[in-house]
Amino acid sequence: MITARAAATFDPVGRSVASARTFVRDTLQGWGLGDIVDDAVVLTSELVTNAVVHAGTAAEVSCVRADDGVRVEVADRYPERELPVENAGRNYGSPDREGGRGLLLCAALASRWGVEYSAARKRVWFQLDFPDRPAGTRSAGPALPPEALPVTDARVRVAVVQIDHTAAVSSWNDDARALFGHAPEQVVGKPLTDLAAWPHTPGTGTGIAEALQLSRWEGSYGIRGADGRIIPVYASHLRVRNADGEPSTVCLLVRDHERAVLQSPVRGPAAGDGTGPADRGSPADAFEVFIGSPAPDDLDGLLQRTVERARDMLDGDAAYLLLATDDETELEVRASTGLPSARQRFARVPVEAGSGRYGSARMPAVHEDLTVVPGAVPLLANTGMRSVVTVPLKVEGRLTGSIGVAAEAPGRYTNEEALRLQFAADRIALAVESARLTELERLRRGSLSFLVEASDLLAGTLDRDQTLALMAQMTVPTLATWCAVYTIADPSSDPELSYVLHEDEDRIDGLKALLAKVPPPEPVLAPGARVWSAPAEAANAAALRTTLRSLNLGDSARPSSGPGATLATAAAVGGETVVLPLVARNRAIGMLTLGKPTDEHFRQEILELAEDLSRRAALALDNARLYSERTAISQSLQRSLLPPELPEVPGVEVEVIYRAAGEGNEVGGDFYDVFPIRDGAYGFAIGDVCGTGPEAAAVTGLARHALRLLAREGFGGPAVLERLNAAILDEGARSRFLTLLYGELWPQPDGSARLKVVCAGHPLPLRLRPDGRVEPAAEPQPLLGVMDDLELYEESVTLDPGDVLLCVTDGVTERREGSRMLGDDGLADVLTTCTGLTAGAVAARVLRAVERFAAAPPSDDMAILAMRVPEPRTAPDQPPARN
């Protein structure tokens, strides 16, 4: 009877073979059929290769679980291509021929197999029966003496955590609480990724989210405890489905050093086959250690599984694996077990570690006692390891890495163990190199995307503070745990700490205080990252002082806060710290500082990516500086073109609203001015220079200053404008025509105000009567900057109490929404609603009406000048005066 079924279709491309293998492996592992996984994967690989490579069609792979075994079917869409099989004679051809080898494997490994043809497809199937085994027994290991058993704590705790289909924690048992310190109500409903610390470079390897999607998974990661520490765990995940069909994942977690409780046993020689301790070191056994390693595209999992099985194969206490850099001069630690891997990850050691026979990683080496040759294996310094065997990983004669297995006892390893380890290393080297190249390509693509996004973000702002914040936010936590940016204002000034960021926001203040006490790094122009040890030294010194002070105070007198924060800061910056120069236009403008937690190291690819980012960030920061300087200069010059504060005109309310078009502009082509001419007389002007921007603002400055100077020299309105017209024409090609309303105002003793105005091509001033009537207060005359000879005249106007004089530029009257325009009539209609309002309220109501007339922001400069003669106030005990 069929109890489970899974199917998938794979495209006719070469990589589909590996995808089919992964599909079958994950399916059978998810069904708990690890005993037959390897045979099923081998047969599937051959049959899918026949379909997608030889037949050239898509392959349909089905896994069917029954009571007695598993049937795997591989179908292609090329029935015309018959298999090289002669059923009658059971002749499958020679093992050396190109075709038919998969059928030989089916005959050798499968319990039953067959071929089925139809009009549209050909299906090859095989069945693997379940092995006979006692009920309840899956695998068994030899009896071991007590000293050979794995070491655990007095009580082994197994945390059982269930994750729902949204990747959130749905169940948290008592052992999980005891191991990690979190109560169930603190974690249930939160994503597991909030607690998991995955040792994983962005863009490469399998993350915890991906691992939760697999049907079965085993491996190591960290869980952040309630005290903030990372607790290494070994996990076994099993994906299940409830009665409603919703998937979830059951996670069993133990401390990493207790992994033997959960780790699946490695398949070894069958009992009773004659292999004893003397035969355990055969090359075949060494090869068997690496069977079932993770898929090569998961480099981190492959390397970690490799070192664990290398350690188990030689019965060692620790093992490590290093990969060569591109120039093969250094080796980088990529995986380890039994060593402080969190502290050693991505550390580098030279290929030529020293002189003598075992100084090079290019040849197998055996050290019977490291105390005799100190420094021979720098990675094992101060770890307690005494004997070690190392072998190279080589592909086509080129050094690609090194594997080492170490023991705490001296004299544990001989050349025989070196040969066994070398045989295994030769079998895994190609897979490691292939996975490394895949990871490198993935990282390069991720780096390119990262730099493109970083460039877009940096180019999107010219604000210095925002640029500094973007620099830090792009590096933390993608490239580093914490970041500090130093800036240099000019070559003669010292570096200044400008921005600090840590992935844990609670540690930013402590980190900033620590860096403030450390002399900044020396600025250099040379490219590349350089190690800066001062922060780690200062942090460790502060932590030591805090610890000694606490010990001297005693537990009862120990302060509740302070020492913990200091120790946390020391742990946060106690790792490797590098400084990258920020150089723009051949000048050092600052430094980008990146740091790791205690004893962690940067990998070379991350440093190269950070160097590329620093170059882009330096240019963006310098552009922001230049923009800020030019903006400050521009704003200072623009403010000089604006009049100072409006003077107090006795008996007259004066209000001005000014809006310049264009981002960053304070002055445009429109201008205004109100100024005292002599005792009792005041001048006012509002004008509009053709165009907007700096060119128009230059004529604005000429006009405003010329008006003041000429008016104070005693010239009347027409003479003032005629001389200003001549000055504009003298500018030649830089001249621009100008519309201008100029007037002089004299407050009168009776409460009125007398005005003389000249309107040279400008929108006419409007007079608002207390009864709501609106009328022009002047006649139009020729504009300035066009003709040499102008004949202008001034008109007299008297503003009675309650009258308002409104003067605007054409940015108000020419406000448009599609084909509609506000116009003079629309402005007059707005003004009729302003009776009884103060001058400030009139100007504000006109501005609101202009803004609401159209949805788009104004595209022209606007100036609004309102003057009002207030009505006399009536005493409370007197009746209002009659007109």
Walk me through what this model shows.
InterPro entries: Bact_Sigma-Reg (IPR052016), GAF (IPR003018), GAF-like_dom_sf (IPR029016), HATPase_C_sf (IPR036890), HATPase_dom (IPR003594), PAS (IPR000014), PAS-like_dom_sf (IPR035965), PAS_fold (IPR013767). It comes from Streptomyces pactum. Keywords: Hydrolase. This is SpoIIE family protein phosphatase. Residues 267-281 have a biased composition (Low complexity). With 883 residues, the protein is α+β, with helices and mostly antiparallel strands. It is 32% helix and 25% strand. The chain has a 6-stranded antiparallel beta sheet. The protein has a 6-stranded antiparallel beta sheet with strand order 14-13-12-17-16-15. A 5-stranded antiparallel beta sheet has the order 1-2-3-5-4, with helices on one face. A hairpin with a 2-residue loop joins strand 32 (816-817) and strand 33 (820-821). The longest helix has 45 residues, at 415-459. The model is unreliable at 84-100, 200-206, 266-297, 353-359 and 555-561 (pLDDT under 50).
Q: How is the secondary structure organized here?
A:
Elements: E1 2-10, H1 16-30, H2 37-55, E2 59-66, E3 69-76, H3 101-109, E4 112-117, E5 122-129, E6 159-163, E7 169-172, H4 174-180, H5 184-187, E8 196-197, H6 208-211, E9 216-224, E10 230-241, E11 247-255, H7 283-289, H8 299-313, E12 318-324, E13 330-337, H9 341-344, E14 348-350, E15 365-367, E16 387-395, E17 398-407, H10 415-459, H11 464-475, E18 482-487, E19 496-502, H12 508-517, E20 530-531, H13 534-553, H14 563-573, E21 577-584, E22 587-595, H15 604-641, E23 653-659, E24 670-678, E25 681-689, H16 693-712, H17 717-729, E26 738-747, E27 753-760, E28 766-768, E29 774-776, E30 795-799, E31 804-808, H18 810-813, E32 816-817, E33 820-821, H19 823-832, H20 839-853, E34 862-868
Helix pairs in contact: 1-2, 2-3, 7-10, 8-10, 10-15, 11-15, 13-14, 16-17
